[in-house]
Write the structure tokens for this entry.
Amino acid sequence: MAMATAETGVIGGVAARFRTCPASGLKIDLAAQRLIKANAVAAVVFLAIGGIFGLMVALTRWQAVHLLPADMFYLVLTAHGLDVLLLWILFFEMAVLYFASAVLLNCRLAAPRIAWLGFALMLGGGLLTNITVLQGQSSVMFTSYPPLQAHPNFYLGLILFAVGALLGCLVFLGTLVIAKEEKTYEGSVPLVTFGALTACIIAIFTIASGAIILVPTWLWSIGYISEINTVMYKLVWWAMGHSSQQVNVAAHVSIWYAIIAILLGAKPLSEKVSRTAFFLYILFLQLASAHHLLVEPGVSAEWRVFNTSYFMYMAVLGSMIHGMTVPGAIEAAQRRNGYTRGAFEWLRKAPWGNPAFSGMFLSLVMFGFLGGISGVVLGTEQINIMLHNTLYVPGHFHATVVAGTTLAFMAVTYLLLPLIFQRQVIWPRLAKWQPYLFGIGVAGISLFMMGAGTLGVARRHWDVAFSDAALSFAYPAAAFLMLALNGLSAILAATGGALFVVLVVASVLWGKPVDETNIIESLGPMPQRQVGDAVASYGNAGTWKLPGTYILVSVFFTAFVLYYFVNWKYLSQLWPMG
Amino acid sequence: MAIHPPERRVWWNEPIEKDEIIWIVIAFLWGLVMFGAMVYWHIEGRQNLSTQAYRIDPALFEKRTAEFTKQFKVREEGTTGIPVARPMAGGDVYMLARLWEWWPVLELEKGRSYRLHLSSLDWQHGFSLQPVNINIQVHPGIEHVITMTPTETGTFSVVCNEFCGIGHHTMVGRIHVVEPGSTAGSKPQ
Ligand code: HEM
Ligand SMILES: [Cu+2]
């Protein structure tokens, strides 16, 4: 059947496999819909498990609580990293890829069977690694730096998982090809699909790097290879580990664009600029692993400077562009919708009660202000000497991958529930608060971990009081305070996360079915559209000035510059070394 | 809209609004400034990571550190039995990392430069000097030579900040910094 379609190029021939979306009129391939559901559900399950682990870790680092014994702490920390960073994020990204291809392009999904095989491999691999970690003997952290060695099944599970994700990427690309051949859309692919395409391309690079490093490491763990070069391992491992963060950024930026398009009718200010910004991610991220090697022995200074600046700053440029064009697109759309007073009426009157919007906007702000700025500072070659492997590092990436990516994924889920699961969000009042609860909690864990890191506190460390050490030492009292505040924030974040999981599960099981009569209200509150979509053909900054956006980016830029130079000042006070 | 194909098929000819261009230029220039800052610091700054590193057999590094310690031992650290080495100012200093200790304890003079040799005998460790907050990754099989100049007197701790197994959080070393010429309770043997 599927083959026949490919040959004839007629969608109508397989009409039974589609339903029509009552909101957009798009045809939705039921096979794609099932896959989106399965991947999203798996993602949420692993978020729930990983989130509980995260809370346990944070409560252990809160010295007055010190929840877990040392061995359990390291085990749970390993599991936390794996379950949230790999499983939650990648399962969800598979759902995003299928959505951005089959659904947005009005097309059937290429090879659903392969997509299911990919899903099965990801699930099997993920479970295998999880079980191996939980059995003990593999508490090596998700980075598993040699010569520290895990059980072979730890690596095997990761390899299977990566192969599964690769299949998902190929199905996405195949769907783009089919959509083009069958002419299911006109002109170029939508911006959101373009963003997903960049994510997919980087993901393939990422997975290839993963294979290059994990396969030999697995062979080493079963004794076929005698030694793994420890510096080379890091270089290649982070070609996977860091580039995959760029996958996350491309995915969540695409989601920002998608959410504001659906809720506000926002258009990109300029297709050219936004697409170029995505393209920068592909061009300049290949050696991002460099900034994980800033204090390793035997790496030349030129190599470090070149790769952290030339490459990284061009990718940073991409994010800074989105950081203006996304709020700019919101402002332009809101002004079109009639909110023209002052610099900020458009923002005040935005649908803050809609969790998809509030989640998206919090994600945007926190990703930029907390994650982006701290990331650039941390990745500055010499400044890294003050921050490497301190809690500043997890502080930074909880701002990017939790406040940024995770919150964006949560936000879009509030739209996927009505659009794909065809269910209303079950308790809209609670849902309204969820992004704020989670967002504030995550802002807390990011900031307080960064604070503790600035005071020198090591990451991945069970005992800041060093009670069992032969030589006594303790971090300053302020660090203990930071860790306590981190624990409290973790409770908030975990509550927000749990609320999300409960809302999703309950809505899928018991939410009111959605059909053409209630689809629009099911998307949650949104502003009245004053001008039809057809009037302005692009974001149209020419017609609308965007004073609010300029103020926002100016504040951002000022904060960035100040914080950057403050850190150089701190650095200059360190013991001279060279 | 971003979820639909661009309405104008030839979107790449659309003009870019001036304010967007200004922001892009600012962001680009800022990237250049940040690039320049790192290069500048290599020339003028005094805190750069040494790139001097050699492959070394861990057993050999252990031997050299032991010889160094024997030569410069001035006392033991409290009741721990860990030797304290007080090398000649401006000379070579060795510290090794192993499960789960930094060895030996060092006593350095303020304002003098030392060539600190770091390596691990087993797994990766993280040299984290507190409360100064200097953090350097330590690999087995690589000897990293860092020239370092303490600028304040006192007792400093070396924490391990690369996870190295179940005893990771007990791995603490020590560096004393004393005024030049002072004997600080230490008598050479
Ligand atoms: C309830 C929410 C969460 C809390 C309370 C939390 C808390 C923490 C804490 C306290 C650490 C340990 C830092 C250390 O000792 O080194 C940590 C590590 C980490 N977290 Fe989370 N986290 C949460 C959610 C997430 C999410 C959603 C992600 C990814 C999307 C994530 C990714 C990571 C990673 C990758 C690590 C590093 C693990 C390692 O060092 O091996 N966390 N988290
Ligand atoms: Cu260690």
